[in-house]
Amino acid sequence: MTPKRILLWGLTLVAVAAIALDLIGSWNQPQFQSRLELSQTDLLLQAAQYQGDSNTAALTDRNPQKTALEAYQKTRSSVEKGISTAQTQIESDSDSAKALTTELAKQVTLRDELDVRIGILQAQQNQVDAALKSWANLTAPQTQKSRNLKTTADTLTALWQNTLPPRAESILKQNLTGWFRNRSLEKLYTLEQRSDALTDLRSAEQEASQQALVKWVSANAVPAIALIVGFGVLVILVGQWLLKRDQSLLLGTNSIRWAVPWDFEITWQVLVVGFFAVGQLLIGQVIVPLGLLAARTAFQFDPTTFTVRDRAFLAFFTYLLLAAGGLSVLYFSVRKFLPLENNWFRFSLKGRWLLWGVGGYAAAYPLVAGISWINDKIWQGRGGSNPLLSIALEGRDSIALVLFFVTAAIAAPLFEETFFRGFLLPSLTKYFTTWQAILISGLIFAIVHLSLSEVLPLTVLGVILGFVYTRTQNLMASVLLHALWNSGTLLALFLLGSSAS
């Protein structure tokens, strides 16, 4: 065995171990989909307050508070399971206790935040005893956020016991948002008999509710249209397969091949060295952290105080470095085989790439949505998600939103499609059928996102991306599909995240 192959085997073992640990670690983390659903629930609560149109109730849920309470209790149950799992692992694994303790603290704070909101929902449904119990569940404060939550819970407890605590108005305005803040202030102003404040609150809420209704309709219209069009595309594909069989788009895919001039070692090298060793390990775990440490020392700033804009810029810069590192290894690995045939790494504005990209997005939506629904039943809200999504949901900073869009809807599709569809998929066709290569590349694409809950949905998306690229042999088609998918997620984040204010 050559020294190069020994090195590749060593890096492969390290990569497999690191990916396995990250996937296992993601089990303790809540799915981002749970937060997204709660944001949509909050938007629905706000929209349901709008009284300007008698059809609003027909558009929204007829009992939004009951639906919201069920959603919050479901998420709390999932978080509670994660807390129990983390506590068990801390007791049995002292080596990873520090990282698990940090994650446990986050989960406890999240549970406290959920309890505050669950209590308000219960109080609004005349379940005052249950609400008081929910607010009494909050743990001893350990961070500033948990102290704020405990103060808020104590204030709410006093209000629903018909007493007026000090600084109640400022506490509620500072620590609650949207529908939850309005209901709490409504209770306060009623106890204080401040009719003018109540009138102003309800007037402002009507304006906010009208905006929330528009956002709620917009957030649901795009998925609804995508589902309808997607089912139509799938029906056409299945119909063509039944009528044409071997000549159909689905079965004819195996006949599409690439002339692969390199051996499997080059494919292995690009994947392990380019994506993992240079991208994830060297840049992600060494260069960026050392750069932050040097900047922290030189400019005396604390990364823990980063704003959403700061974190968006860091994510964008880090991703550019990862992409540059991975593509550099790819180029230097295959440059001796250049020039390649014209169906390799082709970006062309000619042909039907636009139709394939949009059609692929439509077909992907019902398939991924269906798999995600099944996935949710399996993982019960656990399994982690892309941390970038949680950051994007936190604020409405316009520059941060632009940076998130450029990262997720431009940089990620260009790099990942060039890497996984442009290089990996065709390279695998030298040893597997084209459909097998599509499936393997799609599975690897899903696994390297490092979230257990996303493996199945992203594998389905990766297979569709691979199919679209194979049929067009034009990276413009799969890049467009990928960009549309990520843009749709960002649009939902914008509409749902902005509803909290």
Defining key terms:
501 residues; mainly alpha; 2 domains; 18 helices; 77% helix; globular
Walkthrough of the structure:
The protein is an all-alpha fold. The protein folds into two domains: 30-217; 218-500, no CATH class. The protein contains 18 helices and no strands. The radius of gyration is 26 Å and the shape is globular. The N and C termini lie far apart (61 Å).
Short précis:
This protein is mostly helical. It is built from 18 helices and no strands.
User: Count the helices. How many?
Assistant: 18
- N-to-C terminal Cα separation, in Å? 61 Å
Shape: globular
Structure class: mainly alpha
Question: What is the H/E order?
Answer: HHHHHHHHHHHHHHHHHH
Taken together, the total number of domains comes to 2
Summarize the SSE layout with pairings.
Elements lengths: L2 H24 L5 H16 L8 H4 L4 H29 L4 H28 L3 H9 L7 H17 L7 H8 L2 H15 L2 H50 L19 H36 L8 H27 L18 H27 L7 H8 L3 H31 L5 H14 L7 H18 L2 H23 L4
